[in-house]
Amino acid sequence: MPVQTEGEATEGMTTGDREGAAQPGVGGRPRQGRIDAAVIAATLDLIGQDGATLSGLSLVAVAQRAGVSRGSLYRRWPDKNALLADVLTAVTEPHPLVPLNAPLRERLLAVAEGVARRARDPRARRLLRLLAVEQDQFPTLAARYERDVLAPRRASAIDLITSAQHAGEIRSDVAPEVILTAVTAPALALTFTASDRNQPDLDAQIDLLITGLRPTA
C-alpha cells in the first residue's frame, strides 16, 4: 500500500465524491453526530490493528468500515489531517481544573493524572504513539496537537508550580520546567509501554517528589 501523508485527500474518489469534497463544511452545514461517531470509531479501529500506521491509513477504508459513503466522509473531512485532528480531540480528556488553593499534593497529582488518563486509554495511547513516530510526515497535525492540547496544559502546570514556589510550598531553586518533567514523566512513560498492566503509583511518586521539593530550613 502506498504511503499517504496528511495532504492526500482524493484517494479512490469518484467524480461525484470530488465534487462533494470541493466545499467541505460550507454554508454552516451541521455535522451529523451518528456519522461523525461512526467515522471516528472506524478510524480508531483501523489504527489499532497490528502493524497499522497513520501514513498507511486509507480514508476509503475508513468510510467502508464506518458504513458511510466516501462523499459523506470527504464533505466532513477534506483530508486525512483534518480527520486525525478530530480523532485526537475525541480521545483527549478535558483539561482538569484544580483550584490554586487546593493542597499542593492534590494539585500536583491532578497534573500527573491528566497525563495518565490519556495513556490509560488504549485508543489514545495507540494514536499518540503513532503520532510521535510519524510526526515528520504529519507536521500540521503534530503542531496543532502541540498548540491546542499540550501547550495550554503545560502553561497551566507551570503556573501552578510557580505559584507553589512563590508561596514557599516548594523549593524555588529548581526550574518549574524541571519540576513539571518530574511530575509527568512516570505517567507519560505509560504512553509508550507495551500494555497498561504496570500502572505507575502516582500517589507514591508525588509524595516522593514533594519530599525532595520541600524548602530547606
Automatic annotation (TrEMBL):
Coiled coil: none annotated. Residues 33-95 form the HTH tetR-type domain. Transmembrane segments: none annotated. Keywords: DNA-binding, Transcription, Transcription regulation. Gene3D superfamilies: Homeodomain-like (1.10.10.60), Tetracycline Repressor, domain 2 (1.10.357.10). This is Transcriptional regulator, TetR family. Residues 1-31 are annotated as: Disordered. Residues 58-77 bind DNA. GO terms for molecular function: DNA-binding transcription factor activity; transcription cis-regulatory region binding. The keyword Transcription applies. It comes from the Bacteria.
